[in-house]
Amino acid sequence: MSPIAHDLRYNSDNLPNFHTQFLLGGGKLMEGKVAIITGASSGIGEATAKLLSERKLKLMLAARREERLKELVNQIEQEGGTAVYQTVDVTDFKQVEALVQKNKETYGQIDIAINNAGLMPL
C-alpha cells in the first residue's frame, strides 16, 4: 500500500465519499483510464503514480530526472502496473507537446492530467 493510501486510511473522515471510495475502496471507477503525471520522479508525483497504479490506471510519467523515472516505471511494472515515461521540462512547450504526442501514440487517449511539476526561479 502506498504511503498516501496508508495515511488516508486513518485520516479519511474529512474526505468526501467519492474520494474515499476511489482512494481506499479499490477505485474500480477509474480502472483502465490513462493519466499523465508531471513531476512524477519524486514526492507527491511519485506517490500519486504509485497510488493510481494500484488502482489499475495506465500512466504516462513525466519529469526531468530520467533515472528516477526509469526506477519508478520498473517498480510499477514489477507490481503489475502499466507505465511509460518521457523526460520533460514543462517550461518548454515543445517538450510538453511531445509528451502529449507520445501519450497519444502509446495509449490513444488522455483521461486525467495531473500537473504536479514544481518550478523554481533561479
Q: What brief labels describe this structure?
A:
122 residues, 4-stranded parallel beta sheet, 46% helix, globular
Secondary-structure map:
Layout (H helix, E strand, L loop, with lengths): L2 H8 L6 H8 L9 E5 L4 H12 L3 E6 L2 H13 L3 E6 L5 H15 L4 E4 L7
Parallel strand pairs: 1-2, 1-4, 2-3
How would you describe this structure to a colleague?
By secondary structure, this protein is an alpha/beta fold. Helix content is 46%, strand content 17%. It contains five helices and four strands; from the N terminus they run ααβαβαβαβ. The protein has helices spanning 3-10, 17-24, 43-54, 66-78, 93-107, and strands at 34-38, 58-63, 82-87, 112-115. A four-stranded parallel beta sheet has the order 3-2-1-4, with helices on both faces. Helix 3 links the parallel strand 1 and strand 2. The longest helix is centred in the last third of the chain and has 15 residues, at 93-107. It starts with a helix and ends in a 7-residue tail after the last strand. The model is unreliable at 4-16 (pLDDT under 50).
